[in-house]
Specification:
Two copies of one chain form a homodimer. Chain A is an alpha+beta fold. The first copy, chain A, contains 15 helices and 23 strands.
């Protein structure tokens, strides 16, 4: 999960990460989730990992227990991801139980490692002779990558470097095994690329960066069969489309972005930009990615089914990871917009509002059959969403030589090291529920730096006030205030949070004549629990919305109230002649309530939809406020 | 494939089939296809079946050749289906080569059969001990069913009863093996049910009917695991929804309909009616069925993706089979409508216009990547579409005690035996291209009977003239003329064939604000070859259409010409705020051409769509003829 390090060179980035413990969130959106994460989610996951054999597999490989390997071939990675998330959490807050669990597991990992550095508990004991035999399917490099990332996070959280030494031994073993003149191969599931670059950043050892380059550059030569499913059909720099398994594709792109951050290879950045543009045609309005259940794959351009969306939680996490890297490289706000979208919607929907249950797939419409589960045999999603959640504080800020970048808003206090000086920034806001933000600087002495404030693309306008001035800022950019800051100086940002209607390109078959309600960074949906009718039959009546401070379980939300027209079929019908369809439908005015998409499926099961039928024509009584849907407006332009 | 027999009792049917050779088609729609079938398709299939090992497997089982079994576990069934189609073809027309191939294969089948009657070449020799071990997956009863149906067709075509004797031995072996007090089980892939009922009809032996009943009644007891995928989760009579594998579900329903035809069990008919209604919510506008690629399954209600439609050719064939049976049982025109729809569209699209290539999946929208193939390793679809094509003549007519039923129209001469008298009916028409039909009766002597003329549900009106009168007939019914017919008496049917716009229920996400053009029984699509723009960007401009006599390759079609508006995105975009979407699209008037859906993908590859964006608002210059799409009309009713 972790990214560009503040102390690393990463010469080809505009922005560097801040440590996860440098930002303390005190808002009512993230901070209760982070408290749940520490108190409920991570302890429960530790229990599940024990129950399902993940830790047993390590004890077995370490010779501490006997029996058959339990679970799936990539089980090690789930446990490593838990350790990474737990480490981020421990970096931010103290928890004796979690710390003890983490220390024990770290100790166990070291015991399970072979003398030669190899580590994968599936290929221990009787399966030793199968090591490195099938890079496409066996996930050894994938597990190795997660081990390295867990070790890095663990060292940063605890100061204990022993696990990182083990990670270096594993990485060295990988280097000894793979490369030109050695065994040739690339992983079926990318991950090692990001891990090796990050290990390079931490240790300064060039060999890790070179090995990451090797794995990227060896793709497209058919070493694992040459299939587009694995993005092995063409060299990465020549790819025009992201294909195949959504998570693998986005992990590979993330690894390539990490490589660019260190190497600055222009064709790599060009390819990443092309692939990012391609990705936008394959991304849900929630930031979810990967439309097909078959093979967990990306669909064709604009193939974005709603009820049948796969939109795996891991893929939304990966989408956030990729966009975060692109943001750090370029400093361009569009990547922050895409990251925010995925984090606040498509990824966050992957975990229940109390942090105890998970989605693997995240449909955008449902009849009530999709429910979060306490665990999955394939536990990649539960252990991925916690990595992202625990890392959220770090996403809020970035630093550069010139100053500080504010990527996300939320009540918080950040303590940021800027060229040797400490800058404390206090955010006072109710974001994402309200659009007013005040950022106050606490400084030991005056300091000249630029404060780069993200103005979200979704904002209709934004006004920014600082001690010397006031300006309208352009949505979809960073607004830079370059001055000498004095202790107590404050900036006020005002972004009106109105409800906006989002429409989709007409090539998205499933979204034609439908709209999504969005407010600020949050995509909304209508769910049966709040509406006493079938929400699949709801047509928007007009554009008049009210917002309401509300709760789901004990978590604060803002809901949207509006007027709709309910389309009720008088008899069952699927197709009708256009002229006869009229008679088949009864229409009735209704009030409806919409809630943030991430919060759906936390109450009773029932129909849900993100895309609502667009208002058909104006209500004559609402003259001046009426809305006809986008296509009708377009029509006026003919 | 074959159905209720003219000589059987089938006491619970309103209509009986006529033999396939009793109707000679001379039209320009079917008769060129049937000529291709005999001259090209069936000989080519014979060659493919030889090349891919299907016949080898029989020779191997017969001890005539050595080696490993070739192909898939159900390969026998493909060869049987070819023999069934070839037999229907030989019944209608003479062909020495085909006859020789059929006789040789029939001989080979007998040699491959075990002394105890068992027959399945996969489970021959070394695999004998695996017989009947896994009814869910091993397709033995499925293959047995196809063997029986092939033998019945072969006997009727050639008069040679030896293969039917072998089929009876196989059926007896099945009876000896399965039933109460014997081995209990039901097939994972239904088919045996239809076959056994038909064998009962042919032989009059009750035991075959009883065994078919057993297989239906033993379902829902978990004998093959109790999964909805196999419709084994509840007794058939209690089912409310068709679930799981589309072809299996429809074969089971067809078998159940066959059973009802003989037993008249009221709960069975009730269940069939409920399942038929359910099926309508899972059927494409083309009559295709089965929306999901995963598991070749039926989707949820209204889950009908276009580009990702699976709509397997076999499932459309099965849909036609099921509706044909329901028509025979009830005499209700709605089943004839559904049968016609599937036959002329969703099934017929499964074979190229020259009869040499096939679709397995039949999408309703495409970017140009879906192309017909010469063969499939799993050859169920090629050998199923030929069964249906060869049987089409039989679908045209039915008989009952009271008279004759005309189900389909097309230039033809039928020679029908009615209560011992011969009635020749000559149809003079250009249907399906024109809506005028004249039916002339040729009789040796005067004969009193009812002539029941199908008036399609899609007709806007219909006028029927007979010697004594003239009447407007109700679309969606059979119009009955009960009189004494004299030689040379004629009936004129006039059904205006205008282009109509079909809309879908708003719960079909993919079809919202889209229309399908339909003319007569034919669903149309727009394809790139006929239009110099991307047809996915086409919006209908108005309701003024011209038709044009046309050709695709050398086959006659009628194409539809119309005016559209092309929506061109000025930049790439997926989502936009409704108010900004306006500026992203350029609109331009275009002429377009639509062709019958069944004829698509016979020329160069490119985008295609059945569902076209609906016209948004009326063109003021067309006052009186303008069209606003269905939802707008509905709006006027508020």
């Amino acid at each position: 999960m972790a990214y560009v390090l503040k102390n690393s060179k990463s010469p080809f980035t505009k922005i560097r990460s801040v440590p996860v413990d440098s930002v303390k969130l005190t808002d009512d959106f993230w901070s209760p989730r982070l408290a749940d994460l520490r108190q409920a989610t991570l302890p429960l996951q530790h229990k599940k990992l024990e129950e399902t054999g993940h830790f047993f597999d390590f004890r077995r490989a370490a010779g501490l227990e006997a029996g058959q390997f339990k679970g799936l071939i990539f089980y090690d990675s789930d446990a490593y991801k838990w350790l990474e998330a737990t480490s981020f959490t421990l970096a931010s807050s103290k928890d004796d139980d979690l710390l003890r669990h983490a220390l024990n597991f770290a100790d166990l990992i070291k015991k399970a490692q072979d003398k030669d550095g190899y580590l994968d508990t599936y290929f221990a004991l009787d399966k030793k002779s199968d090591r490195w035999k099938n890079l496409r399917d066996n996930h050894e490099l994938y597990c190795a990558g997660h081990m390295i990332q867990a070790a890095l996070a663990f060292r940063r959280a605890t100061g204990n470097g022993e696990l990182l030494e083990a990670a270096e031994r594993l990485a060295d073993h990988v280097i000894d095994t793979f490369g030109p003149g050695k065994k040739e191969g690339v992983p079926g599931h990318p991950e090692i690329e990001m891990a090796l670059v990050e290990l390079y950043r931490e240790t300064g050892k060039r060999k890790y960066l070179d090995e990451a380059s090797y794995f990227l550059n060896a793709r497209g030569k058919g070493l694992i069969g040459g299939s587009p499913y694995y993005l092995d059909h063409a060299p990465f720099r020549e790819l025009k489309h992201l294909t195949g398994h959504a998570v693998r594709a986005l992990y590979l792109a993330s690894g390539a972005a990490d490589l660019y951050a260190e190497t600055g290879d222009p064709p790599l950045l060009k390819a990443l930009s092309v692939l990012w543009e391609d990705l936008q045609k394959k991304t849900y309005v929630t930031g979810g990615v990967g439309s097909r259940h078959e093979g967990e794959t990306l669909g064709d351009d604009y193939e974005l089914p709603n009820a049948r969306a796969y939109a795996e939680t891991c893929a939304a996490v990966a989408n956030a990871m990729f966009n975060y890297r692109m943001l750090l490289i370029t400093g361009e706000a569009k990547y922050a917009d895409a990251m925010e979208l995925a984090v606040y919607n498509g990824a966050l929907s992957g975990i229940s509002i109390d942090g105890t249950r998970y989605f693997y797939a995240n449909p955008l419409a449902d009849r009530g059959s999709t429910r979060r589960q306490e665990w999955y045999e394939c536990a990649c999603c539960p252990t991925n969403i916690v990595r992202l959640l625990a890392y959220v504080p770090s996403l809020f800020y970035g630093v550069s030589q010139e100053g500080i970048w504010v990527n996300l808003y939320g009540r918080s206090e950040a303590s940021i090291e800027l060229n040797g000086s400490k800058v404390v920034l206090r955010q006072e806001t109710e974001y994402p529920w309200r659009g007013k933000v005040r950022i106050e600087a606490k400084l030991v002495s005056d300091l000249k730096f630029s404060l780069n404030l993200r103005v979200p693309e979704w904002a209709s306008s934004a006004e920014i006030k600082w001690p010397e001035g006031k300006e309208k800022a352009k949505p979809g950019s960073y607004f830079s205030i370059n001055r000498t800051w004095h202790d107590g100086d404050a900036v006020d940002i005002e972004i009106p949070l109105q409800v906006s209607l989002i429409v989709a390109n007409h090539r998205v078959f499933e979204d034609t004549c439908r709209v999504t309600l969005k407010r600020g960074p949050l995509v909304y949906c209508v769910e049966s629990e709040d509406n006493d009718f079938d929400v699949w039959d709801l047509e928007l009546a007009n554009k008049d919305f009210k917002i309401k401070d509300d709760f789901i379980l004990n978590k604060k939300i803002v809901s949207i109230l509006g007027k709709g027209i309910l389309l009720r079929s008088k008899e069952e019908w699927t197709y009708a002649e256009e002229e006869k369809a009229n008679a088949l439908i009864a229409r009735q005015g209704v009030d409806f309530k919409a809630i943030p998409y991430y919060a759906w499926a936390n109450r009773r099961a029932g129909p849900m939809t993100v895309w609502i039928l667009a208002p058909e024509t104006a209500d004559p009584s609402k003259s001046g406020q009426e809305i006809s849907h986008a296509k009708q407006r377009i029509k006026q332009n003919i």
